[in-house]
């Protein structure tokens, strides 16, 4: 005997109509009818309510109805699966919310430090751009607003670009230092490149695609302006630290 037959049997014993049973279980009459003819099954919560209403154990109610048992087991497994998914999503939301909150605090700290060290917003660019002119050096930085980070859940730290005469350098997150060798900055340049350098202004690594001529040209250019680059890099690292500290 399946569960639908047992529900009907117990309903008739209690001398209840389908309408009366539906009201007691807070479902529609057609739902009770569907159970009794085997078109579908009650959910777990309703099965417990039926067990209590008729005073029979869940074991007796479900015994012999293998299809119902399989369906119920499947629903329990899916219910557990969905709970794990919801828990995982909840954890991700908490992480993202906390991370985004940290980004907002970082942004506010950067902006406060910029103001304290006399940086000015660059009216010719977007709202996140700031510049500082000091001792013949033009410094520029950009403060990214929370929510526009191109790499979600990765901390953003501003870098600083500095220009003095025809020399341009960049200091990025982690105080990684780069020299920009460009004909646009210096018409005498024969081989353009953006290269990572050490604190002494020496080339840290070259691209495998470079020719020997380009490698020699880049090293010669760095050597020619080594003292200027070292001073510029040192000043720019200091300016960046003033922003992020």
UniProtKB/TrEMBL annotation:
InterPro entries noted in UniProt: Cro/C1-type_HTH, Lambda_DNA-bd_dom_sf
Keyword terms: DNA-binding, Membrane, Transmembrane, Transmembrane helix
Gene Ontology terms for molecular function: DNA binding
Parts of the chain that traverse the membrane: 81-99
Domain HTH cro/C1-type: 7-61
SUPFAM superfamilies: lambda repressor-like DNA-binding domains
Pfam families xref list: HTH_3 (PF01381)
Entries under PANTHER family matching the protein: DNA-BIDING PHAGE PROTEIN, TRACRIPTIONAL REGULATORY PROTEIN-RELATED-RELATED
Protein name, UniProt field: HTH cro/C1-type domain-containing protein
Organism: Enterococcus haemoperoxidus ATCC BAA-382
């Amino acid at each position: 005997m399946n569960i639908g037959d047992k529900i009907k049997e117990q309903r008739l014993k209690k001398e209840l109509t389908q309408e009366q049973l539906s009201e007691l279980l807070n479902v529609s009459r057609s739902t009770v009818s569907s159970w009794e003819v085997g078109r579908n099954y009650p959910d777990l919560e309703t099965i417990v309510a039926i067990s209590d209403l008729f005073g029979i154990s869940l074991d007796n109610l479900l015994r012999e109805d293998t299809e119902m048992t399989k369906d119920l087991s499947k629903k329990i497994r899916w219910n557990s699966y969905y709970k794990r998914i919801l828990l995982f999503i909840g954890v991700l939301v908490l992480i993202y919310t906390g991370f985004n909150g940290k980004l907002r605090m970082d942004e506010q700290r950067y902006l406060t430090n910029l103001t304290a060290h006399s940086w000015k917003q660059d009216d010719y660019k977007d709202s996140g751009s700031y510049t500082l002119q000091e001792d013949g050096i033009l410094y520029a930085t950009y403060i990214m607003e929370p929510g526009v980070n191109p790499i979600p859940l990765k901390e953003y730290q501003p870098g600083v670009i500095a220009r003095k005469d025809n020399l341009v350098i960049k200091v990025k997150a982690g105080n990684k230092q780069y020299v920009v060798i460009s004909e646009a900055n210096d018409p005498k340049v024969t081989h353009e490149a953006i290269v990572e350098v050490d604190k002494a202004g020496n080339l840290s690594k070259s691209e495998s695609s470079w020719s020997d001529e380009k490698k020699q040209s880049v090293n010669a250019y760095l050597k020619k302006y080594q003292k200027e680059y070292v001073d510029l890099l040192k000043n720019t690292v200091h300016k960046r630290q003033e922003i992020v500290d």
